[in-house]
Amino acid sequence: MNEDSPVIESQKKSSVLGKLSKLLAILVILGFIVVGAAFFYSVQYFTGHGSLNEEKIVDIPEGSSLKAIAAKLADENVISYPEIFTAWIRITKPEKTMKAGQYRFEANISPEAVFHKLEQGDVIKYSLTIPEGLMTSQIIKLINEAPNMSGKITSDVKEGELLPETYEYTHNYDRQKLVERMKASMQKALDEAWEKRADNLPIKSKEEALILASIIEKETGVSSERERVAGVFINRLNKGMRLQTDPTVIYAITKGEYVLERLLSRKDLKSDSPYNTYENFGLPPTPIANPGKKSVEAALNPMQTDEYYFVADGTGGHKFSATLKEHNKAVQKWRKISRENKEKSNQQDVSN
In the chain, which stretches have pLDDT less than 50? Predict the structure, then answer.
């Protein structure tokens, strides 16, 4: 019996090891199944429909951590299970970062789509359109009243410094920053137009170009007339004639602080102001408005014309003339149209 003991003992050990190996194998298989199930569930969670029932706007604060962002999204019901959302990103996308801002999340958006939106910084964009020809005071008012902006305009903004166009911005955008962008856009437009300017112009500086552009902008709202109006003013400057343009006299009265809501009088046309181009030769001392890019380009590339005069034609445009005689006829025609329009307006007021 004693001689067989080592053999029996060995068999027992082998049996125990075999059972342990099987148990370990089973545990490993179960582990793989659990991990696989967890991975499958995570993929389904991350790529499937989210928990948001309707579109929602959410602000992600600057400097938020991944954990804080996940908690915020969960609080807003954009995602469920923020722990899974956080773990998935840390494991699969450790090098990626998410950006702060205001986001619009669609109903049923998947956690994966939420992450991509935040990672790409796909924030809500707002826009502010500045019409051409506004005075700086009017533009400042528009900026101050624009929604989803913050801060105050702290710098001095001169007439003609801001380029009118549509500007996009994000939530809580700084107003001073927008003003700086508008200044930079005007400077760029002016620099580019100056480089492409026509030869032999009486315009000696970019500032003079901006002044003339502002007058062109105020004189015509018809895009196709800009170069022609510019040509008339260039001809008058070359010949030493006064510009005799009403918008400069209006600016002499308002100083750019308000909109004049009356017609000019004979007294206005004889006012003592450097902006009165009926009394003074050359350009006024500063721009009288903020011209658009096309007016800046027109000032430096005017139409070649023999015309020295223009007057409203009653259709929104102007009648251009090469001689004073032709111009006086056009003025008489415009006055007749103006009287007829006034009479029609009075008749309508009486009938009402």
Answer: 1, 37
